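User: Quick sanity check before I run a bigger batch. Here is a single chain. Can you write out its predicted 3D structure?
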Amino acid sequence: MARIRPAEAKRVLLGTHYDTRSWADKDPNPAVRQNPISGANDGGSGVAVLIALAEAWRTAPPAYGVDIVFFDGEDFGREGEWDDYFLGSKAWVRDHPDYKVEWGVILDMVGDAALKICKEQTSVDKAPQVVERLWSAAQRTGAKAFADERGAPMMDDHNAFLEKGIPVALLIDFDYPFFHTDEDTPDKCAADSLGQVGRTLLEALRAP
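Assistant: Done. Predicted structure follows.
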């Protein structure tokens, strides 16, 4: 965890998982399905964006205090066994029962070269003000990867916070053909995609 402007009372959470899946169970090639994946997008992309934001805020701090949290154990479970997924965010919420922020954002799989981020349904239902803030910021920055469309509800690290009443939205493009395969490598990602997400978050955090 890193804290930007730690003395500021009004705070925002930005989180992502940094772990990558231990086996490529979605790979079309059975010979590599037991291989750990590189996770350039599913694990690396959110980390890259948050590190870049932290560097940017060294010279131009945000309007809010920001807590940047990197979660482990997001991608540990077997398909259909939800108890073993999202272990880091569940532990964070459990171990910080009094933790409060104004709002928050979880990033996951935001580096796809063909990035398209829809409004994830659970975020719309439980953190609509955060979704509106993000899409308004995306429009102001010209981030065309943010589609004005509803996306399916997702199980991800934001759920642990929403269950505690903390308004946290998920930014994700789940339509990624290399998900949980041996081909989730840097060549499938794009700096422009990461930049659109980063600039949107910078804009969203400029004013309370």
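Strands lie at 2-4, 11-17, 65-71, 103-108, 117-120, 146-151, 168-172.

User: Great, the batch can go ahead then.
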